Amino acid sequence: LQFVESGGGLVQSGGSLRLSCAASGFTLDSYAIGWFRQAPGKEREGVSCISSSGTYTNYKTSVKGRFTISRDNAKNTVYLQMNSLKPEDTAVYYCAPTLGVLFVADPDFGSWGQGTQVTVSS
Predict the structure, then answer these.
(1) Which residues pair with 48 in a beta bridge?
(2) Within 13 Å and on the Cβ side, how many CA atoms surround 95?
(3) Contact (CB, 8 A) for 8 and 19
(4) pLDDT confidence bin for 89, thresholds 50/70/90
(5) What is the pLDDT of residue 111?
(6) pLDDT tens-digit series, residues 48-82
(7) Rounded distance, CA 84 to CA 34, Å?
(8) 21-30 as b/e, with b when 16 or more CB fall inside 10 Å?
(9) Mean pLDDT of all residues in the chain?
């Protein structure tokens, strides 16, 4: 399974970005998908995930009310709308299949993509 993340960039505190996670060579509609992030010197952490149908979602506490995960299975893409961004949201963001809406990457997942850099300036 391979994913391509995009949509990152440099934004001021309080700004917005929308990240996209596109599948390469397979269809996403059978998989729950999660967004993860890794800041310099820190471990990768789960940010948000969505069930295969889109019915269920889960969010890291610190992003609740600011981030919204969604998916368009017809476009084979999962999105992460990020509003009211804070400097502490600065990280490389990755997507991966998850075990339901838990922040656990599917152990059969191949390898992490290159991610997309999000930088929030204060």
Answers:
(1) 35, 59
(2) 28
(3) yes
(4) very high
(5) 86
(6) 999 999 999 999 999 999 999 999 999 999 999 99
(7) 20
(8) bbbeeeebee
(9) 95
Collapse the DSSP code of 36 into the 3-class scheme (helix H, G, I; strand E, B; otherwise coil) and give the result. Answer: strand
Q: How far apart are CA 50 and CA 64, in angstroms?
A: 14
Under DSSP, the state recorded for 33 is E
Bridge partners for 34 per DSSP: 49, 96
- Average pLDDT of 10-29? 94
Query: Could you report the per-residue pLDDT of 25-42, keeping only the tens digit for each?
Result: 888 899 999 999 999 999
Q: Which pair of tokens denotes residue 100?
A: 């339901």
One DSSP character per residue, 43-109 reads --EEEEEE-TTSS-EEE-GGGTTTEEEEEETTTTEEEEEE-S--GGG-EEEEEEEBSTTSS-B-TT-
The DSSP code for 28 is: G
